[in-house]
Amino acid sequence: xxxxxxxxSHLSKTFPKQRRPANDDLSFEILEGEIFGLLGDNGxxxxxxxxxxxxxxxxxxxxxxxxxxxVATHPGFVTMTVGYMPQRGSxxxxxxxxxxxxxxxxxxxxxxxxxxxxxxxxLELLRLTGIRNRSSERLSGGxxxxxxxxxxxxxxxxxxxxxxxxxxxxxANRRHVWDVLRDRxxxxxxxxxLITHDAIEAEKVIERVGIMREGRFVALGRxxxxxxxxxxxxxxxxxxxPGKEPALPDGITPWRRTEDTWWLTxxxxxxxxxxxxxxFTTVTDIRLHSATLEDLYLHYVS
Amino acid sequence: xxPETSAQAGHAPAAERRxxxxxxxxxxxxxxxxxxxxxxxxxxxxxxxxxxxxxMLALGLIGRPYGPEYLVHVLAGSxxxxxxxxxxxxxxxxxxxxxxxxxxxxxxxxxxxxxxxILATVIAFxxxxxxxxxxxxxxxxxxxxxxxxxxxxxxxxxxxCAVPLxxxxxxxxxxxxxxxxxxxxxxxxxxxLLLLGPVVVPPSMLPDWVVHTGYASPASYAASAVxxxxxxxxxGRLWLDVGALAGLSCLTLWIAGRRVQWRER
Lengths: 302, 265
Hints:
Structural class of chain A: alpha/beta
Structural class of chain B: mainly alpha
Number of domains of chain B: 1
Number of helices of chain A: 10
Distance between the termini of chain A: 36 Å
Helix content of chain B: over 70%
Largest interface: A-B, 48 and 37 residues
Radius of gyration of chain B: 21 Å
Largest sheet of chain B: none
Number of strands of chain B: 0
Order of helices and strands of chain B: HHHHHHHHHH
Largest sheet of chain A: 6 strands, mixed
Strand content of chain B: under 5%
Number of helices of chain B: 10
Number of strands of chain A: 14
Oligomer: heterodimer
């Protein structure tokens, strides 16, 4: 059975001059080797939560344990165990990419030779070899984000906490980053905590998700379980020849219409009747999908 | 297939590794902070060399008739100007930048001690100020004809002069809300330190209240110490200067260490 990587108990944090707590009595666990996603609207308290998990911020109440050790009283253990990629900021951006990776790996306890090997591996893994001698200051936003991810991974910490790692990345790099993280998780059992707004793509890697609103979890569990609980229905997008509106079975009506497209929501059992009723000489396209992580997110935060 | 462990990959798992020694931490942090030459070299030329040179030439050439003691004050004061700009102002700017860019947070998530970070920053900027000091000194010797009587204690005293100024810079950088505010405040402090005390002008040419104010200024002690170890003679006053500079160094660095944004409450 997997060990508990993080155990958060009754965690609360209120910033000075704020009436509403940023985190309000949060309790949850993250297992070793798990990929845990944190979703929520802006200001929901996700970044405040992870800053406490990496010991950058002290909670007002409650405790956070990392592999059984209180993070507040074991700061050295936290720094040796967790690699953190913040939402903003660009640390070490006056160093070249290679220097930043090498020095971070060395500061995380690797020998100089190991740090050099780690640097080269990360450069290749995140496709940064071509910019290894450029300073981060001169990179594009997306390249800088990749460098920050590489810096968080340097020294191969067993826990990665990544605050919006795919922000500013193009679609190809976003996909590559999810692949890299999944691979890191599978090969090294790295525990990964992700904050992301990229819910559709994150769905491919996230094993458990917590959705936050106003400092509290409004949903916590496996995405599939949560989706089933929220919406057992299917969404259908029907495109047709303009003016040739399709006939629908009784009890099914579009909830949104344009000249050539209808959007419907149907029960799983209604799908065969719907498909049978459609005249595919006038229907040009049909898309059928169940709830996504994004639907789940929208359901809980809206 | 069982998960590949870090040990199989050639190094121990992170949580079982020992954090780097303090010496290794300091060496890495010093290297990181020395990389600041990539932006500070422009300042080194403009404020670290040009300002002290203009100051020295203007006051030195105009005041040449006042005699050699005056010229020694002008040259030593100009070296303090270089130290102020290259240490106090650059350290302040660097801390403000580190706060703004999240670098302090980054270091706080590494096995790094905050006092070593501050120490590495101060020493790095002192090393980066050495060319400015040498250029100012050389120009003073050549243009003003001031004879140098280098005392071995200069190797200790010159860095010691820089530390309290860098410490003030660290304090401003740690407390200032924005890099812009930090820039304005350090400029004001630089002007105040230069004008309120016998730094670039001999005390005999200043009103008494300015001379007395200088007793509270690290720039005055630095100027006095620089005069003695570079141009002689070294007197008992040097120990007062060294004591004051050491005390101010400890005080400013201690406060900066306590107040630096590092695992906030």
